[in-house]
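Example 3.
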Amino acid sequence: MKTVIVTGASRGIGACIAKEFAKNGYNVVLNYFKSEEKAIEVSKEIESLGARVLLSKADVSDPAQVQAMVEEAINVFGNVDVLVNNAGISISGLLIDMTNEQIQNLVSTNLVSQIVCAREVAKHMIGRQSGRIVNVSSIWGVVGGSNETVYSATKAGIIGFTKALAKELGLSNITVNAVAPGAIETDMMKCYDAETKNQIAEETTLGRIGKPEDIAKAVLFLASDDASYITGQVLRVDGGWNI
Ligand code: NAP
């Protein structure tokens, strides 16, 4: 049975990705940080789907906690086939108002975490000459978002990292791709009022805000055998927003 690690799987897109993999026969390492109750709820849903789940509390911005999480995953399930680097935070505001702490928190939670998670699973995947890494970026990493400069920088960094790591791991039969979501209905969008959300929907070619399922299906595809000749790519899943 294959195993997936999904970071930030207590809520939103990550919870949906974890359930999608469980439905498709994977053991799931369900990482969370602060939302323990929600993570337990998601883990129960996954178990009810007949999959095995390992709840793994770890702050992915802390390399030591990431190392411990990957080690435990391998000890429990024997192998890690797929890493989905999904955990992330958003702090909006003008760059001139951002504090050093906010900048560092964004960079370490959104970017450094993905690099360290990938390093830890890559050591294991290279030994097995097989693996899939899917990094969750954002449309703002592609086009840049005003009021989201540091967030955009972290998400653009993920894209550069994805392409470079794909080149480094290709001969080890490991694919590395990114998904760049547009506006997706989760807690992260709570900062937008109804009017702003309507405006985004109107600006979107498909006329609606996305659902976590829209991203989960794309991530599952990139991890599947059907995507075995796809690497170093950025798949925009944004309903045609900003094209
Ligand atoms: P969300 O609903 O706010 O959920 C964020 C998840 O990340 C939670 O499970 C949270 O866990 C986890 N997380 C945050 N900091 C963490 C840390 N230090 N260590 C471990 N886990 C941590 O956000 P979302 O919308 O699902 O976003 C998921 C990903 O999609 C993010 O990378 C985000 O940037 C990206 N994205 C979202 C949108 C959108 O419109 N929603 C658009 C583009 C890209 P706890 O609650 O347990 O701490």
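The mean pLDDT is 98. Residues 201 and 208 are 4 Å apart (CA to CA).
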